[in-house]
Design a protein that fits this description.
Blueprint: H1 9-17, H2 29-40, H3 43-57, H4 61-85, H5 92-99, H6 102-137, H7 160-175, H8 177-202, H9 228-239, H10 259-288, H11 299-306, H12 310-344, H13 363-379, H14 382-410, H15 426-441, E1 448-449, E2 452-453, H16 454-477, H17 479-485
Helix pairs in contact: 2-8, 2-10, 2-12, 3-9, 4-9, 4-10, 4-14, 4-15, 5-6, 5-14, 6-7, 6-12, 6-13, 6-14, 6-16, 7-12, 7-13, 8-10, 8-12, 9-15, 11-12, 12-13, 14-15, 14-16
């Protein structure tokens, strides 16, 4: 049975300890925290906040971020325990393989590819918007045809700046993990400073009347909830994109110096820091500008222009570029590590485990997906890319949460410096239910096709393709399947 194909934990952990074929351990707790912040602070706060306020939540976007933050916090606790027990490259995919078996592991891995690849494409589109705006200020306007996709509200041919930044980051990641993490740490410091700059300048330009506008054609029902509670929850589902970066920390488990200590620290610290910053920023943003005017690609910079501070808008645009760059860096890093793990398990062709002889990075995976991510950024709109990214992430959250009680039951000998509080069932169950809850509300504000939300339909098509590949290749060629064919017993030995 496919649900009985569980990869032995002893072998999973041994792969991470293999110095010859494993990845190099070079990341400490603050490097992992910087990686999490680098992934979290980016498109969600610099781009999606405006769209969510204008079309879904209004001023209640602050509560939307609280709701999304709670869902992320529940999942973060589960990720922290499981990643510290299974400190191997692959994130939720590896955890599911060790607990629920090969079939569900494939589904999670395929969903994570959707999360990281399309997520990086989404961010590249936002990066391009800020980049072209800065060029416009300097008098170097790029042709619309080469800064927009065919499906954008302002149609073009291809978003070339989005593709170019992806190619640059692909080359950086192929060069090496340590080098890319150093660049990431520097840029993270810059963009956190920019966020603090926005808070310091913007707090003096709040008009409290904008939090409770009267009903009208532009302001909907008016008040703090102009689109009702449903709109606030739809905003939470949409803005969830702002939080998904924390799980990218777990993909670096095999490269952490002390994973049992450093991974929980990096995951939880990055999430706490970013949640506090997000709530303050969106509260100030909606106090500076009437929410219905924020449906723009650069809402934080737009707010500074709106209150008559164009110089601050330029500074924030540079900070946004830095923020979006690190988000792409971490997402592209995480995606290559997912495929590295899946290839090592035989579920996809072995070329994806081939490491560069000098730099010891999975360069083939990085190169192939660099091309695909660049194509996504060049030819597809940000709204659809972002919603599909959220679907893939939330699906992975459900099964990672479920892995916590399974690990405790099947492997009581597997110890960790961190455990989810209140026992193995309460928080993991809440985490899984909350993730499914947000998946449902992703339909709010998204287009429908044949009476079906486009984001759900796209998710279904993606997984149908994945299942066809699994049953035609992965199921036959996986390492566990080959062992079964050779009559080798697949057992779960003690790991300590």
């Amino acid at each position: 049975m496919i649900l009985q194909r569980v990869k032995p934990l002893a072998r999973i952990l041994a792969e991470g300890r293999n110095e010859r074929s494993g990845l190099k351990r070079s990341l400490g707790p603050w490097a992992l925290t910087a990686m999490g912040i680098g992934a979290i602070i980016g498109t969600g706060i610099f781009v999606f906040t405006g769209v969510a306020s204008a079309t879904r939540s209004g001023p209640s976007i602050t509560i939307s971020f609280v709701v999304a933050g709670i869902v992320s916090a529940l999942a973060a606790l589960c990720y922290a325990e499981v990643s510290s027990k299974i400190p191997i490259s692959g994130s939720a995919y590896t955890y599911t393989y060790a607990t629920w078996g090969e079939f569900l592991a494939w589904i999670v891995g395929w969903g994570l590819v959707l999360e990281y690849a399309l997520g990086a494409s989404t961010v590249s589109v936002g990066w391009s918007g800020f980049f072209t705006n800065i060029l416009n200020v300097w008098g170097f306007a790029l042709p619309v045809a080469w800064t927009h996709s065919h499906w954008d509200p302002t149609p073009g041919i291809a978003n070339i700046p989005a593709a170019v930044i992806v190619f640059i980051l692909t080359a950086l990641l192929i060069r090496g993990t340590k080098e890319s993490s150093t660049v990431n740490a520097v840029i993270v410091a810059i963009k956190v400073a920019i966020v603090l700059f926005f808070i310091a300048v913007g707090i003096g330009h709040i008009n409290s009347a904008y939090y409770h506008l009267p009903p009208g054609p532009q302001s909907g029902l008016g008040g703090y909830f102009p689109f009702g509670i449903t709109g606030m929850l739809g905003g939470a589902a949409f803005c969830f994109f702002a939080y998904i970066g924390f799980d990218a920390v777990s993909t670096a488990a095999e490269e952490a110096k002390n994973p049992a200590r450093d991974l929980p620290f990096g995951i939880i610290a990055s999430l706490i820091i970013c949640t506090l910053l997000f709530i303050v920023v969106v509260a100030i943003l909606n106090g500076m500008v009437p929410f219905y005017k924020l449906n723009v690609a650069d809402p934080v910079a737009f707010a500074m222009n709106y209150v008559g501070l164009p110089w601050a808008s330029v500074i924030i645009s540079f900070g946004a570029l830095a923020g979006l760059t690190t988000v792409m860096l971490v997402m592209m890093f995480g995606q290559s590590r997912i495929f590295f793990s899946m290839s090592r398990d035989g579920l996809i062709p072995p070329a994806f485990t081939r490491l560069h002889p000098a730099w010891h990075t999975p360069w083939i995976s990085q190169l192939i997906f660099g091309l695909l991510i660049a194509a996504g950024g060049a030819f597809f709109p940000i709204s659809i890319l972002g919603s599909l990214t959220n679907m893939g992430t939330l699906a992975a959250f459900v099964l990672t949460s479920a892995a916590v009680p399974v690990l405790r039951l099947r492997h009581p000998e597997l110890q960790s410096d961190f455990k989810v509080p209140f026992g193995p069932y309460a928080i993991p169950t809440l985490s899984a239910i909350a993730a499914l809850f947000l998946m449902y509300f992703l339909k709010v504000g998204n287009p429908y096709v044949w009476g079906f939300p486009l984001v759900w339909l796209g998710f279904l098509v993606w997984f149908t393709i994945g299942l066809l590949f699994y049953f035609s290749y992965g199921r036959r060629m996986s390492t566990v399947a080959l062992q079964e064919a050779e009559g080798v017993a697949i057992v779960q030995p003690r790991v300590n």
